[in-house]
Amino acid sequence: MILRFETDRLILRPFKESDAPYLFELNDDEEVMRYTGDIPFKDVEDARKFALDYINNPQGQIKKYHMGRLAVIRKEDRAFLGWTGLKYHQEGDFVDTGYRFMKKYWGNGYATEATRRVLQHAFNDHQLKVVEAHVHEHNYGSQKVAQRLNMKLDHRFLWSGTKPARCYKITNDEFRNS
């Protein structure tokens, strides 16, 4: 299964080594990272190693589960906008969708458009019954994306035991009827 998808405006594809400067820029923005709980890359080389490991690791999401986070590229100018994708969580036996976009591209519907295509992949190619999105309680932008995708608030919880978060879910039937 090749993880490469398109929408009207976007290309979704696995990370490449050449994405390193963009991944570094994305994760170096405090506002982008505010609610993620992730640690920024220390430099471009760190981002390059991440990209290579993400696509080549035989135990990673892409090789093992044929899903993962994908770079989002705008067709018109090949700009790297951010990423979206699926992630299988073995410890809880569920799949979530996530997205992270550079601030300069917020508010253009890219996260919704790209993630809608990822959900189509989840339900059509993987025959999943449900997909979750875990969103920080104060990340209103990401909550709006989940809601635009017709995901419903299922419950609130403490992310990593300390951060207030919301779990949104959508079923295969809900997606097909949206």
TrEMBL record:
Domain N-acetyltransferase: 10-178
Domain of life: Bacteria
Keywords per UniProt: Transferase
Gene Ontology molecular function, alphabetical: acyltransferase activity, transferring groups other than amino-acyl groups
One Pfam family, short name: Acetyltransf_3
Keyword Magnesium among UniProt keywords: no
Regions annotated as coiled coil: none
PANTHER family: GNAT FAMILY, PUTATIVE (AFU_ORTHOLOGUE AFUA_3G00765)-RELATED-RELATED, N-ACETYLTRANSFERASE DOMAIN-CONTAINING PROTEIN
Name under which the protein is recorded: GNAT family N-acetyltransferase
Organism in which the protein naturally occurs: Nonlabens arenilitoris
